[in-house]
Each structure stands twice: as C-alpha cells, then as structure tokens.
Hints:
The complex is a heterotrimer. By secondary structure, chain B is mainly alpha-helical. Chain B has helices at about 1-30, 40-55, 65-90, 100-120, 145-170, 170-180, 180-185, 190-220, 225-240, 245-270, 275-280, 300-315; strands at about 125, 135-140, 140-145, 220. Chain B has one domain: ABC transporter involved in vitamin B12 uptake, BtuC, CATH 1.10.3470. In chain B, helix 1 (about 1-30) packs parallel to helix 5 (about 145-170) and helix 6 (about 170-180) crosses helix 8 (about 190-220). Chain C is mainly α. In chain C, about 70% of the residues lie in helices and about 5% in strands. Chain C has helices at about 10-35, 35-60, 70-85, 95-115, 120-140, 180-205, 210-220, 220-225, 230-255, 265-280, 285-315, 320-340, 345-355; strands at about 85, 90, 165, 165-170, 175, 180. In chain C, the strands form three sheets. Chain C has a two-stranded antiparallel sheet with strand order 1-2. Chain C has a two-stranded antiparallel sheet with strand order 3-4. The two termini of chain C are about 35 Å apart. Classes of the chains: A alpha/beta, B mainly alpha, C mainly alpha. Chains A and C meet through helix 1, helix 3, helix 4 and helix 6 of A and helix 1, helix 2 and helix 11 of C.
Amino acid sequence: MNKTTVGITLIAGALALAGCGEQQKPAAPQASGIEIRIGHAGPTTGAIAHLGKDNENGAKLAIDEANEAGIKIGGQAAKFVFIGVDDQADPKTGTTVAQKLVDDKVSGVVGHLNSGVTIPASAIYNQAGIPMVSGSATNPKLTEQGFKNVFRVVGRDDQQGPAIASYLAAAKKPKLVAVIDDATAYGEGIANEVEKTLKAANIKVLPREKGTDKTTDWKAVLTKLRGRSPDAVFFGGMDATGGPLLKQGRELGMKAVFSFGDGACTDKMTELAGKAAEGLLCSQAGIPPQAASKKFLEAYKKKFNTDPILYAPFTYDAANLLIEAMKKADSAEPQKYLPELQKISGFTGATGPIAFDDKGDRKDAEITIFTMKGGKIEPIAVVKSGKTVPYEEFVKSMGGK
Amino acid sequence: MDTFLQQLINGLTAGSVYAVVALGYTMVYGIIQLINFAHGEVVMIGAMVAFTVINALAPSGLPPLAVVLIGTGCAVPVCMLVGYSMERLAYRPLRGAPRLAPLITAIGVSIILQHLALMIWSRNIMAFPQIIESRTYFIAGAAITTVQIAILGICVLLMGALALLVYRTPLGTAMRATAQNPQVAGLMGIDVNRVIAATFVIGAALGAVAGVLFGTYYGIAQYTMGSVLGLKAFSAAVLGGIGNIPGAMLGGVLLGLVEALGAGYIGDLTDLCQYGWLSGLIDACAGGGHFILFGSNYQDVFAFVVLILVLVIRPSGLLGERVGERA
Amino acid sequence: MQSFFDTRRYPWLVWVGFALIAVSLAVLPFALAQVGTTWVRITNYAILYVLLALGLNIVVGFAGLLDLGYIAFYAVGAYTYALLASPQFDLHLPFWVILPIGAAVAALFGVLLGAPTLKLRGDYLAIVTLGFGEIVRIFLNNLSRPVNITNGPQGITRIDSFKLDGFDFGHYGSLFGLEVSGPIRYYYLLLAVALGIIVVNLRLQNSRVGRAWEAIREDEIAARAMGIDTRNLKLLAFAMGASFGGVAGGMFSAIQGFISPESFVLVESIMVVSMVVLGGMGNIWGVILGALLLSFVPEILRWTVEPLQQALFGRMLVEPEVIRMLLFGLALVLIMLFRPAGLLPSAVRKRELAERAA
C-alpha cells in the first residue's frame, strides 16, 4: 500500500466524520410561539431497557399533557418538544448523550435512570447550567456534589436502607443480622445503610459478606453464615443474584428472615427461588406505581396501553416540575426558572406533594415495604419521614382506590 | 464441624461441574494446543437451549425427569453443531498459523456467540421451572440435596465414560496419536481433521451437559453465564495440567474446594483482630470489632490466583508432563 | 521516521502534507462543534482509545506478548489520578505532577506483572494477563474495607479537571469570538499527548530497543543467542506499554470527573486488543486506524441504526450495543482468517505471517 494513502485516509476520515454528523442536526424549530425542549435520558436499550422506556413514557406523558393544556410562557404559546436519548446504562455513553442534550439546547432534563450514569452526566448539565431532575437515581452522592441544578424526586439509598432496616428491626426483632452485598455501587451502598441503622438500634451485625453481580453460587458464604445462626439476612443486590441466594439459603436449612432492597423486590424472585421466596421482606424507593394518583394511572394506561412498571410516576412528576417552574418564572431560560424549581411549593404530583431541600433531594420521600405472598410481592407499609404507615391507610390518604 | 463438612459438599458439587467443563478445554488443548476461549459460551448455549425446551415442556405434565432429559437431549446436538462449526470455520483455517492467531479468533468467537445468544434469548434471566421437588438430607448436620447427589453421580459417570472413550476405543487411540504428533498420526492413516473435529464435538457435548447441570443446580441461566464459568473451568484445567484428562477432573474438584473453603474461612483467618498482639494496634478491633483483610469479596480472585501461581511455579500443572517450548 | 510521501522526488510534498494534516486536526473540533459538542466528546474518547491502542501495540505489536489485561494499567493510571486529585483524600495535586506519577505507578505494575510471567509461552501469558487484569479490578472494587482507599464500587466523584495557571480545561470560554468548550480544550490536550506518544512510538520502532523487540517476537531463542537480554527487554516492553496506559487513564479520570471499577472490565481490554489486531499489530498507523475505526463506527451506527430500524420495522430489533460487540468479535475473527496482519500491515509482520510457521 502506498504511504500516501495513509495520510489521505486520515484526512478523508476526518472529513467523512464531520459529514456524517451533519445529519444529526435537530430539525429547525417551527416558528409559532416558542419552542421549549425537554430532554429525557435513560437506558432505552440494554438489560434494563424496559425500565428506561417506562421512565421515558412517564416524561413523555407529562409533556403531551402540557402541550394539550396550551400553556403560555412569556406571553407566547409554548410548544414543548420531547427529546429522548439512550444512555445504555453506561457512564461513558451517559456523558456523550448528556452532551447531545446540551447541544440540542434543551431547557431541562429528566433523568438519568442509574446513579452511576447520572453522576458523571450531572457534571455536564451543571456546566451548561441546565436543570436536571432524576426520577430514579437513588445514590446519595448525586446530590452531594454541590451542584445547584441537580434534583431528584425519588428517595435516596440512605433513606431506603434505614426504612427496610427499621421495619425489619421492629417487625421481626432480630438479635443478630447478617448483611451481604453484591459489590456494586447500589448493592454495597444500600447494605451499608442497613448495617448502620441496625447497629444504631443495638442489633448485632456480622462482618459483611460479599459476592458479585454475577455470583450464582452463594453456598460457601451462606454455609459460613449458617454456622453463626443469624435471625435475619439482608442482601443488597439484584433479583438475578438474590433469587439463587434465597433458594440456596433455604436448601442449607437456614431459618432466618431474608430481606432485600428494591433491586430484588420483584415478582421474579418467585420464579428464581420457588417456594423459598415466600415471606421475604423487601423495599422500594418511592411508592408502588399502582399507588400513584388515579389520574396519572388512567392517563398512562390510555396513552401507552400498558401499566407503569416502576419509576414512570416519578419521571412524570419530574417533567411536570420543570414545566411548573417555567410557568412560575414565566420563562424557559434555565437561569431564570432554576430558582423557582428550587423553592417550588404547593406542587402535588402523581407521587404526592413534592418540595426540595437545599441539596435538591425530595423532602419527605416515601419508601414502601413489601412482602412475598402467594408468589406476588404485596405492599405492607409505607415509611415516610421516619414514620411507618400501614399500606392500606397510606392509599386512603392518597385518595386512591 | 458440620460447617466444614457442608463446605466440602458445596465445593465438591461446584467442583465437579467445573471438572466437566474443564474436560472440554483440556481435550482441545491436548490435541491442538489451542485455548478454546469460546468453550464457556458453548456451555451457556447448552443451558439456554435446555432451559427453553424445559420451560416449554414444564406445563405439559410429563414427569420432571423426562422433561430434563428431553431438554438435555435437545441441547447436546445443538452444542455439538456449534462446536463443529466453530472448529470448521474459525480454527481449522488457522492450523499452523502462529500460536496467537487462533487464540485471538477464539476470543472473537466467544464475543460473537455471546451476543448471538443475547439476540436469540434477550438479556432476561431464564429461571428453571419449579418442577423438581428437591429433597434435602442431613448428614452430620450438613445438608445435601437430591439434585447435588444427581450432579455428583452424573459427573462421575461422564468422566468415566470419557476415560473409556479415550483409552479404550479406536477413536481415543487416534486422538492420543494426533495429540502426540499430528504429522506422524496422519502418516499412520489417521484422518487428523476428523479426529480434531470429533474432539471439538465431544467437548461441546460435555459442555452442553455441564450447562444443564449448572442451570439445574442454581436454577438460573443467562447469556453472560459462560464467561466466568469458562474462566474458572480453564483455571481448573491448568491446575490439573492442561491437556491431561484426569488432571482436568482433579483440577475441577480442587478448584471447587479451594473456592468454597476460601470463601468460608479466609475472612476469619485474615481478621487481624483475632491475633492478640495486632488487635491492640487497630482501633477497629475495640469492643469485638473486626478488621478483615480478605473476606468472601475476594472469592473470584481465588481461581485467578491459583491459575497464576500454577503457571508461574509449575506450568505443567499437578498431573501434566513438562512441555518444552514448542516452535 | 519513514516518509509518508516520495520525498526524494517531491521534497515539498512532505511539508504540504504535514500542513494539511495539522490544519485539519486543528480545525476539526470547531467543525465538529458546529454539528454538536457531542462529537467532540466522542472524538476525545476515540483519542483516548488511540493512546491505549498505541500503548498495547508496544507489548503486542512490537514485542509479540499478547496482553489481555491491559485495561488494568489504564485503571491504575485512572485511580492514581483520582486519588491524588479529588476530595477522596483531600489531595489536589496539579495534573503535570500526577500524570508522570500515574505513568510510573502503571509501569511498576507492568513490571510486577511481567517479572514472574515472562518465562511463559504466548498463550499462557495471555491468560495470566487476563487473570491479572481481573485481579486488579476486583481489588479496586474491594479496597473500601477494612480501610477505605478506593471507595469500592461507589467510585470516586468530583475528580479535578486539568488546570494550568488558572486555565481550567473543564470550563467554557471563548477565543476570538469562537466558543471553546471544555471538550474542545481537552481535545487539544489529548491531541498533543497523542502526537507525543506517536513520536515516541516511531522513534522506538526503529531504535535498538525496537529492533531487539522485533527479534524477540520473531524467535526468542535466536534473539537470546544473539546476545539480547530478552528478560529485561520484555520487562521494558511491559513497563512502557503500561505507562502509556497509565497516562491515558489519568486523562480519562480528569475528563470524566467520576470513575468506578465498572469502567475497567475485561471487555475493555478485549476492545483495545481488537483495535490493535484490526489495524495491524506492530504498525503504528494501522493501530491508530484500528482505534479510530472501532471508536467511530459504533458511534455512527448508534445514531443511525436506531432510527433506521424504527423506520423499517417500527421497533428496534438489534440494539446498537449488540451490533457494536458483534463488530468487535467479527473484527477479531475475520481479520485473523483473511488478513492476519491487519488492515495496514507492518512490513515485518506481513513477511512473518506469510511464512506461516509449522
């Protein structure tokens, strides 16, 4: 091959590249009133695509409703445009698509789904001064970065951990608890919070045991724990590892109560662990979708012909919060409506009343406790600002079914 | 004591599954000195095919054992076909190429198989339907389930059958001859290509069975399950002496035991607080605290540490013969 | 350095060529920014992969040692930077101090890995390096207890961006009326580092050391017989390759601002190997081409395949991520089968692979 070709290839490559990108330019705005772009970022492909889509649907619904309502901002008819991007649940891709939203000049962002993706992406929105509201990133670190533009409407891991731990402590009165995690940011994070709460309640906790998010053989760890006979076991991890863990624990003849965080709080646990799953305790950040406001549930069902899976009510609220703050500020300029978003009050969304504290976390976020009964997880209680309310009462207070 | 016995049972069961997978690596390596990186994916495909069939047949009311057997019966030919095509398309053209070439191809094949499986079966975890009523027996306080007993039995049977095949049949003789020296074997009238293909196919069939065993034992199958399992089984094969069939069995069982005992005991052994003179120096030890250097979080490291130690100290493994640098 | 063009006939062509390349590289980010800063960011990641591929090329291409755990050095570099420039230990050293430290620590790890394993034959070595890479990742993931060093799976947040004399690479600003965003600043920095590493590579290739590596790669026993200190030279290859990985890791840390062990998984190692293999082991320009192709093609696919599938089938059949991984797998298999020396083969490699040792 001629050496000249190398040089030419490089240049041609660079030019081709620039050309390829050209088509990516978003369509020119239609000139009638003002156009306000709201971005959503989440994994719409990959392992948790169903959850990413669910989140996207929630935000989409809010924007469609806003368009129907004919909102005026700055004296002009506002047309809200939804821009959805796929972060593949990968931190690096997350920053790339965050940049894409910034390039597209969005006024606000709803997302992302995973904490590990949201944290690096939030830095990019912060630099661009664009407000971001996540409906599902639960890692405390997200709002501890000192970014003024970062909010979330879902409970933090350090609210969920204490909630399930204190419920466990109160309902089952264990004396000795074993805590296991899957050595991921989520699993370890929630397990640490559970351990902290249990210790504060003067309950003994065994030294932490760990697996990975791919571990299928928990027997060695469980056998070791069986030798210490704990009254309860908490596992921070997902259902794919939690199912086998539970099944193997029972096979080894362990009698302890098993409890899990929201990663393993699904009906899938029955499929994976069979009868062993009966009676497990688990928690979910926020309220179960079926407890969201009736208006939202009906609208969602009508539009997407399916029920929300997990966080859709939260992304719906997140998008509505952005719009509400824009209305109050009478502007879609990020720096103008950001203060309104920060001090928003009197807002009642699909997940109940929402207000933010100084960090951008939701004040009084709810955590729901479930138990496995007849192969289905059933909500039994809602924990809110340190108080535990039985589920039935909570639903009544929401004015639901 | 019951804890120790239980850990032995845990390690033995996991180890015998490793051993069956390790056989696939060791047979191929023994005959053409290729690390068939994609073998773990063959095991995964075996489990996925079997699970698909088993899940489809579960509601049919057939006896559970028949369902599992039919599932395995479907998985084995599929895996044999995968093994054969792999050898024919990706490895045979490279025979005689520099050693790294087929290894790189094997890595590529592994990625391709894994993502084809993803496209076919999606990322969802497949669960083993709850059709087998696994009974648990207690021996001196240690639990052992019927599934575990069945796995141990099947593994022993498989290994025995393979040993018979390799040491007592004409095909086995041809395989050993090819492993010794392919050129000479060819001159002696052995169809070397056929023998090598047969090796791949037999290894893949074993892999399929191992996949079903693994899936039945843990009740779970997913497109990613092959890579970790494959690496561990490969470590087991190296431990026993790669290319050596009894070595792979020994290596598998030993690795299973090392992992179980390691996860079970290394945390306590490296808890610095139990060593009197040290505990005074560490604040965390005050009031019955712990200062554990290596807990069960390092469970997955054991396989790699064993692998590296064996390769560095005794590359021929426990039962292998010394092999010099081959050109 | 070998000439790009036939310099004997047209000496001025060299300068025209260089000028063209220099101008296009200098203007590139602004052209890309017109399309979207996203593409500048994507280009930055691509350059990071070029750095990694060039580093791995020293080990795999020059010295012929297949390293399947190369990402470990990237991780070491990234964590060195993160620990010395973040609130984790409340250290905020300037980047021109940390990058050399990162390179040195990574080189040390390279020697640590190399020393016990150099006796091993090629394929064994590959597996040991793979194991090493996983061990490093597992340790990074677990060194949060009993003493918190790496913050475990939570990763390290709020890593400092590069600052030089009050000039912060992470911030927005403008120059001659043009908007110069953080990614554009990093682009120039990355480009400068990449050019530096390319020059080092080119100089190495035809140096005494480079030729000794080549000899080792071709026939180690013969090389030893010729009086080449094979052990030290192989160690040197590991150390140099690792130090490049360390530098790339440090830059990744600063650009990303957040790192966690999940960025350093086995697949990343294999991706870098694919880039080297695709482009052509041992050929610097080939390796760069391989890295650029495997970085950009998946990105372009990502923005085109999804809408295309939506338009054709009304839903997504094959996810872009799957296509990307299939591309990597196919690159490895097809290149080895049909063009074992890569897209742009190095002269020696071509000869060597054509012979096909028995």
